[in-house]
Amino acid sequence: MSNSTQAAHAQPVEIWTDGACKGNPGWGGWGALMVHGRHEKELCGGEPDTTNNRMEILAVIQALAALKRPCHVIVHTDSQYVQKGMNEWLDGWKRRGWRTADKKPVKNADLWQTLDQLVQQHTVDWRWVRGHNGDPGNERADQLANRGVEQARKAQRAADA
After folding, report:
1. Which end of the chain has less Cβ packing within 10 Å, N or C?
2. Predicted TM-score of the model (pTM)
């Protein structure tokens, strides 16, 4: 049985992701909540001088990179940029050499390419959820993304001291 076939038959790993940015560009954070059965894992991080869209993509990248083997994954995101990027735009970008339909370079192509490579290792379903609308997983991912902003700011202050 192939890895993708095995992944399709296993209990899915559910991942909720979110990005946050204080200013755009500005201090950014990403967060991911990973749930598999009764097991949960929280991930977060942040960067200075970034954008919300970069943080949204990075949240998914970090969550998928944390998986130890091929899995069936359900990604819940409140980012239409991520959801449409993966479901509608990615194939066209790749066909056009990472150019948009109007021949401009794809923004965040470095992250999209990394995400594309990670997705190839899993069976991934993309689910859009309305942000800040009471979805418990989305609310936790938002908290984690904001924690990532604060961690990045703290790390910068410590480096500057």
Report:
1. C
2. 0.92
